[in-house]
């Protein structure tokens, strides 16, 4: 992300002091009694490197107050502390490929064993997350133990288009990180103070960043111990297929990371066609560029690039999951968040993360964030109430419908109903059809 004098989108996603002793969680409840209320567990995102379940923007107060829910937010290890594993072949080390995931699993165990003391029902748990937190939610659904501890999943902007490396594929990043930290092996690394471990992450970022790709220096690993398949596939198999799913994306996801970067504003058609070729192959790249440009009159090359990234990283794999769930008769509700922010002259549009203050209905906690500047309070409050109540309804019943919004049908093979959240909220048939069809003819993967 382009940063000049601070974060121009979120205004920050966590502030010091940090600590490696971070495995804590927070609980909001309407009352400490035996009412056995539905439970909503929230997992924050942040590109696997930032964020905290203790941030005010993720406060569970509004959900507890408005939905009579017990809400839990959790912290888990990030960056090198949570996403690097140093496997020496022993059984103990084999468990540590995804420390972030085992942290979250531990939190779910705590919820199962203790939430009744806070008025919650351990048998009616919804796990929800956004971005990396949504990918985490799906990964938990594929874990044999975790999938038994929740009934519903809310996936907001999961980056399912990411390649999830195997242990062997991830080795190159681990070696690059050791080099950045200035050590030869894990034994030397263990003697470094944890702030130095975080500083070394900058070197890995520089080694892994690629033009036209969302930067992800740290990634989950398919280790066949805690993560057996790509998180996008977990909700299609075994017990996880029975989990109720609400999934969605924002219309201009990639604007969050690219729209304010002056270097990307200078992108040329040739550069973008070259980037498209990495996804579709050389033979069709120019045609794909023209097809994207056709849907956005006056599109600049950077606009085409952002649409491509939004589709391949978020929208298309989300739609593919909805398609597969629908084909197997499994319940799934889909949404697209279309409401554009006027911030930064409208350049962010309906960017990644913009739906969060609407889902939580807590704009007062976002006053520091440039992302929400200029939003008309009347329009914003109305849309927030509609989304907030839909999430509450889903956590309580497994169905997002409520009296304050149009009927939201399940995503089915026949009509592909997708709720379009905007100043006017309406269900739309096959809202992502253009992206679905375009990427359906892909020649080669990136």
UniProtKB/TrEMBL annotation:
It is an enzyme of class 3 (hydrolase). It comes from the Bacteria. Residues 18-422 form the Carboxylesterase type B domain. Keywords: Hydrolase. GO terms for molecular function: hydrolase activity. This is Carboxylic ester hydrolase. The keyword Hydrolase applies. Pfam families: COesterase (PF00135).
